[in-house]
Amino acid sequence: MNVVKPSVSIGLPVFNGEKYLIEAVDSILSQTYGDFELIISDNASTDKTQQICRKYAEEDNRIRYYRNKINLGGPENYNLSFKLSSGNYFKWAAYDDVLSPEYLKKCVNVLDTDPSVVLCHSKVSRIDENGRLIGNYDDRTLTKISSNKINERFSDMISPRNTCWAIHALMRSSCLRKTPLHGKYLDADRNLLAELSLLGRIYEIPEHLFFRRDHPQAYTNVYYSKIMAFQDYRKQLAWWTGKRSNAIIVLPHWKNCFEYFKSVNRVSLDLSDRLLCFREIGRWLLREGSGLLKWDLINEFELRRFKLHYGSAKLDS
Questions:
Q1: pTM, to two decimals
Q2: What single DSSP character describes residue 202?
Q3: Domains in the chain, please, with CATH?
């Protein structure tokens, strides 16, 4: 018996997403482009996520629901949803974001007509926890992501101007398989996008078809301190690895920089393009990278001094 594979696979990794999950899934099922499968990978949720997902899976045969016995950490769950997919195109979907009904159709059209494009996304709008539109993310526009020059695309992707919303773009599965996928380290999505930019052009549809939800449980609101000047990156690593980190020292930007070099070495490039990409890493270091590497060291020093003076319990309070 021949099984017809869908053109598009959507991976929705989720952990305790009961509050926004229904709206996210409904926006996917409301797409005007219907040739897709939705793979929901539940990271051992303890709320009503399982009941919600099973109900959807019973009602729509395009939905496949998987539940992990233990929390694997964010990246591994993201990667699992891709490994379970079968479509020529793949998209990660967040449990709290919403898509315009035309999102998939317009992204598929771009990828179908232009083989040089490795991933397609749209402009991004911002909604609050109640789904009200509260703004657009148009202030950090990347200008070189569609360039035919590999080093120019790579430069945009490693820049702090890259907010990484494109991690939820529609991608060519064949290209995504050439990468290590999501790593178990901070901001690994930035490194993944940077490596994808080495494989092809990135296209942004000039319409706001993707709506990112800003709410109290969002990653940036949970893990970034609004009070202290420094960050306890070990707390963030718990999301990336699924467990509390016992690392002696955490230098996230050093890790990102190291991975940029690995990506340029890993991807098959002409020598001239490889050297130009190494040059872009050097320029990044001169512009902002060196400051970020320095900040990592200062952050570790300040964190240790705080713990020595007040104790770890005060930091966690």
A1: 0.92
A2: E
A3: 1-96 (3.90.550.10), 228-316 (no CATH)
Residues making up the chain, counted from first to last: 317
Digitized pLDDT (tens) for each residue of the chain, 317 residues in all:
456 799 999 999 999 999 999 999 999 999 999 999 999 999 999 999 999 999 999 999 999 999 999 999 899 999 999 999 999 999 999 999 999 999 999 999 999 999 999 999 999 999 999 999 999 988 667 889 999 999 999 999 999 889 899 999 999 999 999 999 999 998 999 999 999 999 999 999 999 999 999 988 777 776 665 545 667 777 777 777 777 666 678 899 999 999 999 999 999 999 999 999 999 999 999 999 999 999 999 988 887 777 666 665 455 54
Q: 109 — phi, psi (to 5°)? A: -60, -40
Give the C-alpha separation, 65 to 125, whole Å.
28
DSSP, collapsed to helix, strand or coil, labels residue 172 as strand
